[in-house]
């Protein structure tokens, strides 16, 4: 949205900017799974959360003059953080359920994830608008 809105890029250009991060996420997810099996979720989630915080701080300071390569690198770091947080946290949570409840846990997780995303987006807009009026 940032690329198409304020930066004025076409959808195709934004897609190409995001492609390296998406490929990195897809390539690393199986390797993160192996590390999860070897070390457990905590070893993956804590560094991933720290990386996520750092990338969010960087994103909060992005301006219109950011070069494309810098945007791509920050997005790749974000995708690395997401890969090290999402799969271990979901797998760790589902592992706590008895086996006969796995389908229900998966259904709940798959239902709550987009609902939480929609809630975040719908509350962010009014909050951002109120901050813009104050500043």
TrEMBL record:
GO terms for molecular function: transmembrane transporter activity. Pfam families: MFS_1. Its main location: membrane. It is found in: Cell membrane. GO terms for cellular component: plasma membrane. The keyword Membrane applies. Keywords: Membrane, Transmembrane, Transmembrane helix. It is a multi-pass membrane protein. InterPro entries: MFS (IPR011701), MFS_trans_sf (IPR036259). PANTHER family: LINCOMYCIN RESISTANCE PROTEIN LMRB, MAJOR FACILITATOR SUPERFAMILY MULTIDRUG TRANSPORTER MFSC. This is Major facilitator superfamily (MFS) profile domain-containing protein.
């Amino acid at each position: 949205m940032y690329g198409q809105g304020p930066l004025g890029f076409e959808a195709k250009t934004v897609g190409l900017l995001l492609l390296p991060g998406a490929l990195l996420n897809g390539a690393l997810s199986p390797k993160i799974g192996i590390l999860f099996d070897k070390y457990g979720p905590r070893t993956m989630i804590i560094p991933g959360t720290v990386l996520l915080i750092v990338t969010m701080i960087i994103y909060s300071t992005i301006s219109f003059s950011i070069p494309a390569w810098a945007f791509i690198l920050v997005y790749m770091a974000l995708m690395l953080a997401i890969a090290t947080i999402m799969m271990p946290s979901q797998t760790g949570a589902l592992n706590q359920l008895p086996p006969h409840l796995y389908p229900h846990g998966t259904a709940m997780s798959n239902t709550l994830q987009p609902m939480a995303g929609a809630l975040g987006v719908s509350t962010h807009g009014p909050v951002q608008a109120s901050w813009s009026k104050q500043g």
